[in-house]
Design a protein that fits this description.
Length: 711
Amino acid sequence: MDNMLEMYLYETNTLLEQLDELLIEAEKNRDFTTNDVNEIFRSMHTIKGSSAMMEFSTLMEIAHHIEDLFFYIRENGLDSMDESHKSDLFNLMFQSTDALRSEVEKIENDEPLSSNIDPIIANINSFLEKISGSGNSSSENTTADKGQKDGGDTIPPADEQQIALINQELAGCPSSDLPYFIRVHFEQGSGMEHLRAFMTVTALNDLDIHFEYYPEDVETNSDTIETIIENGFFIALSSQEDVNRAVNVIKEQNSVETFEVIENAAAKPDEKKPAAPQPSASSEKAPEQAPQQKVEQASQQKTSQAPQASHNNTPVKQSLISVNLSKLDSLVAIVGEIVITESMVTSSPDLQNLKLDNFTKSARQLRKLTDDLQDIAMSLRMVPVSGTFQKMNRIVRDMKKKLNKDVRLTIIGENTEVDKTIVDSIGDPIMHIVRNSMDHGIEEDVKDRIAAGKSPQGEIILSAAHTGSEVIISISDDGQGMDPDKILAKAERNGILTKPASEYSQKEILSLLMLPGFSTNEEVTEFSGRGVGMDVVKKNVESVGGTITITSELGKGSCTTLKIPLTMAIADGMEVSVGNSMFTIPIANIRQSFKPEKDEVLLDAGGNEIIKCLNDFYPIIRVHDLFNIETEITNIEDGILIWVEAADKSYCLFVDELLGEQQVVVKPLPPFLSNFNIKNSGISGCTILGDGNISLILDIRSLYAAFYNQY
């Protein structure tokens, strides 16, 4: 069941995401296409069926009623709705998908499903009632008109004598001279039985057969619902061949619970076709009887009725399988062990000073294969950021309506790929930043934009691009920008400044926005102003090894940039030694390494060492002092300085020597070490080198904080 549930959640979430994208695009075009209608119908049918199998009744019911709605739209055409109906339909669909997503989240969190979904069901039914009555005349169609529409003469309602001719089992059946009836019963509680009956009639019209149906005014008269529930919906046919063809269509109809084929005892003998055996009262329980007597459970599959898509729009079949993420994690871990073992074999001390040409050749081939295996294993975890980016369309769409702002979202580089675990972690930070841009980035009054020489329509640009081992994600807007004076004044009132306000640079002022509890929004709204925001965003981004920076120009707009590592499992690092210990510094954090001269090192007011790099001064952190490591290299000119940078921190590390660049497999620290708060000491993990030694991976950001907390 766990595997089934995983597959159900994966499939349902995928369909809901695709549905959101489809709705956003359709709303931009202000209309649905035929393909859109068919796609929504198929998606709801899939969700309904899988939810019924998993016994998630609320999801099944919501999907069921949306499916009914789009069945009607599909059968009657999009022209049956006016512009106001289409606008209402967009809003209804977004509400419905939100309701479905809410129920899915409850399943994911192991919470009970909603006990009352009547409001959303009522909204769907009400809309269907509205559009089904919009195209009809207020007066009922005449019998002649109805007969012409259905392609056959319609017999007037039966009188009492004719009804008496029908046997007791068929009590309530209407009169007809046609020799066969099909009596259809719809699912209990499905609602709007008269429209379901009309949908069945519409489907039968495509067969080009002569038939009659009762009640006759199901399309226009909602009072027929009670009659259909009590007696069923009757379809009269003239031949066994027509019965068989009609049965095939009825099987595919939505909400049909049961149907039975019965002989019309009131038909005139000379009009009857070869006689079918008279059904007994137990016909519904006798599956061995002739097809025309058998009671059959109606299939819920309607794919055969879906119009065939044009050849150009037919998706190319892909050979894809879904794999549990934990299995990929295990695969990457094993590949990492293979890489380490291969390095240990080729670097074995037993092989030193031996001339082994064949071994060396084989070792090179093994290294190439392990590198290829490593690349393939990592690529399996890489997914495009498009899924996360496309969700922002919905955020912008909803906020446009609630804030009454005209804004467009432009997406660039959505096919950029990042590790799956990282993609999952950056969704919330990106959403929060987009909300900020919409809420108080874009101007409230369009007149202010026009006065500033801007387009009346605001724009938010969401972009992603590869740069070496990182992905750069930026969220920019062309709004009013941020006022540094206002930010500084708010920080001063909150007492969070660490030096005189006049000494803060523009970059430092904007960094204040990411301090806990800081908010420039004076008014609490649905979207922002609660004092919790950018600090959480920063924490989430840094938890996956990323950095975040903010730039802004008053009156021009703002830009938030996230630098995210491609993967957290394998990293390019620089191996350094301090005494007998080895450390790995991520290449992404290194700006420069150099041999310092003694007279280049100065002392600041606090007695800490600093050095000048590119016309600016940076502090020096001696790794052997920080970690209490014994080493013979203590003079500054005997060692190496590595200029590193992470987020807004930039400084120099003093180490004994550089051992060289190496791609390392990142190993998490054992859980028991968390009791010693080791991660806050500047160590993020470890790796095993080719000679079997362990190298600790330095966290450049927390190392800086650890140094100044210690001293």
